[in-house]
Amino acid sequence: MGTAEIADQMNMPARTIRHWLARGSAPDFRHRWSRAQAHLSGPFQAYLLQRWQQGCRNVSQLDRELQSLGYKGSRRSLYRFVATFDLASGTSGEDSPEASDKQNDSPLPSSAALTLSVPQATWLFFRKETDLDETEQQNLKQLRQAHPSVEKAYQLASAFLQMVRERTGQQLEQWLTDARCEWIARI
Predict the structure, then answer these.
(1) Does the global pTM surpass 0.70?
(2) Pick from 37, 127, 136, 160: CA 20 to 30 A from residue 167's CA?
(3) What is the pLDDT of residues 21-65, one digit of tens each?
(4) Are the C-beta atoms of 5 and 20 separated by less than 8 Å?
(5) Is position 128 within any domain?
(6) Are 59 and 95 in contact (CB under 8 A)?
(7) Are 26 and 81 within one domain?
(8) How many CA atoms lie within 13 A of 77 on its CB side?
C-alpha cells in the first residue's frame, strides 16, 4: 500500500504516516492509556468517595487503605484524584487534622464529575442537548452543577458551537471578549 492509501484507511494525515514509515514504527498509545486508566478504576474511586463522605480527608491514610485493597497506583495519582473533590468543594486539600475537621461538611462533586473522563465530558459539551439520551442529559446536568467555572465553560462552548452551526461569525468578537473576561476573572 502507498502512503496515501494507508492514510485513507487509518483516517489520518499522510504526513503522519510518512513520518511513522520513516521512523520504522508507529507510537504505541495503548501503553500510556492503559497505565493511566489502571491507577484509579471504578471500585477505588467509589471507595475514595465513600471514605471522603465519611469524613476521612487524610490522603496518606486513604493511600494506606487503598494499598491494602490492591491499589497499585502512586500517591501522586491519588492526590490528583482527591484534588477533584477539593476543587468542587472549594477546600484547600491540606492533609492535616485541622483541615480534616474544617472539611467534613464540604460538598462533593457529582458522580458524573467523578466518573466521566475528559473526552466523555468534552463530548457532552459539544453535542446538542436535544441529541443526548436521558443518562447523558443527567450527566451533563450534574457536570454543569459541579462547579461554577464548569457552567461558565459550558456556556462559552455552547455559544461558540451555536455560532459555528448557524454561521454567525459576526458574533465572534463579542464571544472572544466574553471568553477573555472570564479568563481574566479567574486570574
Answers:
(1) no
(2) 136
(3) 888 877 765 544 434 444 566 778 878 888 888 888 888 888 899
(4) no
(5) no
(6) yes
(7) no
(8) 16
Cα 138–Cα 141–Cα 143 angle in degrees, nearest 5: 110
Residue 116 domain-assigned (yes or no): no
Cell of 57: 480527608
Higher pLDDT, 68 or 30: 68
Whether 156 is covered by a domain: the verdict is no
Task: Give the per-residue pLDDT at 85.
Answer: 67
Quick check: is 174 in a domain? no
State the DSSP H helix or E strand holding residue 133, giving kind and residue range, or none if neither: none
Domain end point (choices 89, 109, 129): 109
Instruction: Verify that 69 and 90 share a domain, yes or no.
Output: yes
Mean pLDDT of the chain: 75
> CB–CB of 3/14 below 8 Å?
yes
Using only the alpha carbons of the chain, give its radius of gyration. 21
Write out pLDDT tens, residues 73-103. Answer: 888 888 777 777 654 454 444 443 334 433 4
Q: How many structural domains does the chain have?
A: 2
Domain around 29? 1-39
- 34 and 45 assigned to the same domain: no
- 125: alpha, beta or left? (left if phi > 0; alpha if psi -120 to 50): alpha
